[in-house]
Sequence to fold (519 residues):
Amino acid sequence: MSERKEQIPGFSAGGAVCRLVERLIEMIVIIPLTMLAGADSALLAPVMVLYQIVFEAACAGVPFGIAVIISHYSRRKKYKNVMAVFHDTAIAGFVIGAILASLLMILAAPLSAWILGRGADTSDIAAMTAVLRCFALFAVSEGMLAGFRSVDQGMRRHHDYMRGVLAEQGLRLVLTILLAWLCVRKLQKASSSAIMMCALAGVLASAAVLAYYIHQSHGLGMRTNAVDESRIQKQILHASRPYLIQAVLSSLWILFDLFVSGYAGIHYGIAAADIKSAQGIIFVQGYALCALPLLLSCVDCFTRLPQIEEAFTNGDGDRIEQHVNRAFASFLIVAMPLGTFVFLHSDAIVKALFPSIYSAYTASVFRWTGPLAILFGMGILCMYLLSALQLHKQLGTYQLIAFVIKAALLFPLVKKWGMKGILLSSILYFAALVFLSLARIRTRALVEYGRTGIVLLKALAGCLSMHGAMYLLSLAGIDAGAADSGILKQFILMMAAGAAAYYMTGDVLRLFPKRRKRQ
Fold:
């Protein structure tokens, strides 16, 4: 990489990290919602999956449509300043969002019945229909927000973009938990009503941030600084096209799981109750857990993306390898202890955190979310690294290959392992994606034995300490299944033991001098 590379306009490392944090927060919110929803938490599974799909359609599809519309009209007339570009962008976002909303409104009832499957309760179908109609309103507001943010990205206003997205997510987080708590605890409504209130919270948060954008821009006008509108159009188009393709490919695996898992279970004779509880564990608690290690390590991992992007622009291959190594090391020391702990103690975790849906079967399904959390984070990290290196086409190809492997093996795995086969197929999906991505990045992240050995040693120490804390607590008489405050003490001590082992391992390793490489 001795030649200087010309950076393709459109990839914003700050915007990419912001979108990732946004989605991870949405997945983490599932945990308190599940504890509020209680036994009806299985209804959250299709709700959260569809929310992600609507969100991706708005954030990736709408800017792409906007860019195409603006490019079409720019050939007919010349814009005098960026105000005209922005005005048409906001209007186009509203029109595209309104089209999506109208389709979703019309198809809400039949789509709800199809998603929930045969034998679903009438109340569940009604609740799902109301949720989809809330999402229809969400598509309009999110479509206009995508228009505002497209201009911010096109003008390289990363600070404004990230501030708006994080403000929206913070507001959505507070509103969601507050409305769900008010609905279930104070108003004594059913948990399905709480799920509808959660959908409404997303709409209110988007509308509030949209109102702020409109107020800041004095209507549908724009800041008065003059900017070359052709450059904005080009950057919006370059930014939206790869994200649109990536959004479609990223949603394939979870869409496939959502719509095929029930039919696969019925086909192989699995009981309907086991299918419903397993779907709740997989699509709600499982994917929330997968987001946790990535969210905890994203500050260190993804702040390196701008540095990787800069090194790629300057043709500095050594710096790229250095930052990739450190990004993977930062993630592994968080993900490996957590994933291993979940795999070893899934029964106690489900019993303590989700007692309303606990059974031996759900605990056995939840066990495999531990390895999935490790590979999920590595796969997402590889996707963003490929984007930073301007390898969008290769990323789409790798995602498609991994999906074909997953789709081909899903039914045999369900036949052999039951509903656990769904998680196993997802593990294979991300394993294939990580293998292909690392081969393309050409990094020595997993070949530098000294650095990798230290990371694995610290991760192993964290795993063993958490496992040992669990064993000692069981000897002390604090049972994982006891319905008392011992559960809370148990988890606090286990996490404290893991953190202590992590830092103590670093101190112990400093006692052994390491030979420095010659520069």
Notes: Residues 321 and 443 are 5 Å apart (CA to CA).
